[in-house]
Design goal:
Blueprint: E1 2-6, H1 13-21, E2 29-33, H2 36-44, E3 50-54, H3 55-60, E4 65-75, E5 82-86, E6 97-101, H4 105-118, E7 124-128, E8 141-145, H5 146-152, E9 160-163, H6 164-172, E10 176-184, H7 185-190, H8 192-211, H9 213-224, H10 228-237, E11 238-239, H11 244-257
Parallel strand pairs: 1-2, 1-3, 6-7, 6-8
Antiparallel strand pairs: 3-10, 4-10, 4-11, 5-8, 5-9
Helix pairs in contact: 1-8, 9-10
């Protein structure tokens, strides 16, 4: 049985839609749900066989993984759910306190790159988890992702809102790749038919999800306290494939953070 990591953030629902609705059968698959940073660790340590993982995790440990062709969570301009919220303009944050969510490696590294190399500021970084309730009551600035971003965006203290995908696009003119789907190399080498069968099912699941974005928004918008129109805008901004622009962007991000940029895929 394959152990497969999933995140029930809104931005992954279109990919897993077929499985969640039961129209795509998950035979010989055990799904394990967790936040992105935990799935990174579980796949890295061999407790999972396949998972959606942060692009930073893949690039940092590409010797351990093979990518699923044409799968990612990317955004060409605004992503709307990876936000840097600040009470002061971004260029005034030098040596100020900045709080980074523990839930995402990619977003943290992207923000550090932008602050240092684009805005020329080096803040004092601290880490928080809303689940652990360890965020200060009045932070100067914070990075938030996923469903939490929709909730924190309602806090009127944060006058300055920066969308990290839009920041990247304004510099490089490319979509930013936040997450990819990967399998551990030894799992694919020992069980290629199982992995390829799951990959094909994931393709069908994603196809059904993209065709049913309205249904997804009707089901999930209430949970996030956003209306269906905003939900649709969000999902339609995302890309779930890994085309040439996304590959180029991944390689550029790898160069930006100083890690190897060779992308390797399963054969299907």
């Amino acid at each position: 049985m394959l152990k497969v990591g999933i995140i029930e953030y809104l931005n992954t629902i279109p990919v897993y839609y077929g499985f969640l609705k039961g129209s795509v059968k998950a035979d010989n698959v055990e799904f394990v749900e967790d936040v992105p940073s935990e799935l990174n660790e579980l796949l890295r340590e061999g407790f999972l066989d396949i998972s959606v993982i942060s692009s930073y995790e893949y690039l940092s440990n590409s010797d351990k993984y093979l990518l699923f062709p044409d799968f990612s969570i990317s955004a060409k301009r605004k992503v709307l759910s990876v936000l840097f919220l600040s009470t002061v303009p971004i260029h005034q944050l030098h040596r100020k306190d900045v709080w980074l969510t523990r839930s995402s490696m990619t977003s943290r590294e992207l923000l550090k790159y932008l602050l240092k190399n684009v805005y020329g500021v080096e803040p004092n970084y601290y880490y928080y988890s809303l689940k652990d309730n360890d965020l200060p009551k009045n932070p100067t600035a914070l990075l938030t992702i996923g469903d939490d971003a929709f909730k924190l965006l309602k806090n009127k203290r944060f006058t300055f809102i920066y969308d990290l995908a839009e920041e990247w696009f304004n510099i490089h003119g490319l979509p930013f790749v936040f997450a990819v789907w990967a399998v551990r190399r030894e799992v694919y080498e020992s069980r290629p038919e199982e992995v390829e069968a799951f990959y094909r099912k994931l393709l069908v699941s994603r196809e059904e999800g993209i065709a049913n974005l309205k249904d997804i928004c009707q089901s999930y918008s209430k949970k996030l306290c956003i209306n269906c129109e905003n939900c649709m805008e969000y999902l339609e901004n995302l890309r779930f494939n890994l085309g040439n622009d996304e590959k180029q962007s991944l390689e550029l991000f790898a160069q930006s953070i100083g890690v190897p940029s060779k992308l390797e895929f399963i054969e299907v």
